[in-house]
Amino acid sequence: MPADDVAVMPAWETLPHERLSPRADTVAQRLSVLRRLAHPEEGGAIRVLVVPVRALLAPVIAGLGELEPVRLAPGLAVGLEETSRRLEAAAYTRVDMVESRGEYAVRGGILDVFPPSEPRPVRVDFFGDEIDEVSSFAVADQRTIEALASVTATACRELVLTDEVRGRAAALTEAVPGAADMLEKISQGIAVEGMESLAPVLVDKMIPLLDLVGDRLTVLLEPERVRKRAEDLTATTAEFLAAAWTSAASGGTVPVDLSAAAFAHLAEARALALSTNRGWWSFTALASGPEATRLDLSDPRTYRGELERAVSDLGQWARQGWTVVVATDGPGPGRRMAQLLGDGGVPARIVDQLSEAAELGREVDWVPAPAASAEDEADETVSPVDGAAGAAAGDPASG
Fold first, then answer.
1. Digit-coded pLDDT (tens) for 338-349
2. Class of 70-153 per CATH?
3. Which fold has domain 3-66+158-283?
């Protein structure tokens, strides 16, 4: 499966009720995924979406997939003032000199902006009402690094300060004195830290993430761990609400209803998937019973330095008609492996890249490959996937 068919929907680093905002790069990645789900014709359809359980159970603001990012490319007929206005609406902060993600600055006919999804800030030169040049630059010395064909600036916040949101914030300022300062700034169009915690009372609707993934099969990996994590999340939400009402009973301000942003129960997510005729599968080594389907899967064999056994197994698979490919981190280990196979009576050849399937049952191929990434989110993962995906266990190419 091509890498572009797989996407990750990260969770906020913060809890929904905390007066803290998620990181801008996290928001950018989430909005990019939501945009692709809503408009697959733009970035390509997502076949596999990997979702941590806290992202699965946290409601999202309805309509985020319709937020159009700010596209910057040479030749685009767009003015500096209009671009600045769109960046302001996307919760970018205007500063004198750009140093951090989510900031932008204007000097004459030049706009500097640091999109959360970009490794470096971007400088945009305007010629009248047209973009003349787009390039990246260094934060340290502000010098241009390289020209860019195009850049997409996604929003920095999931709570966009529209006229409707600002109006609701103004109406709530007196009714919610505990958040009056925050609401007043929001009503003025100023993005403030933690404003996402007030989203339930400022937007029209919040919806489950599963409402946005279409007709997909949901697969839980390590469901026992997922359930435990889900229970912890819902318990945290309950504790927050209980503390707020305890404070009100002691003479404090009656809390505003933020329950629409609370983590859902895992059972609710499952019921939603099943009620819309979408599958809900769990992969576990512990389940049994009439509803369980046994898969003949096991952990891959590890040799841990047992070269003779490794060479013997590779030779046996090749003789059985399997295509066997051994990938190493560089040419040196590859030559050593080819020599070991030859000494063990297993024909082998070294190829720079695997462009075609090797001739079955004849040789073992070695292909250079980069080291695997150390990043892994498997411990609390839920994956809504395309139900048509699969592999035939007897296909020699799968060996």
1. 888 888 888 888
2. alpha beta
3. Rossmann fold (3.40.50)
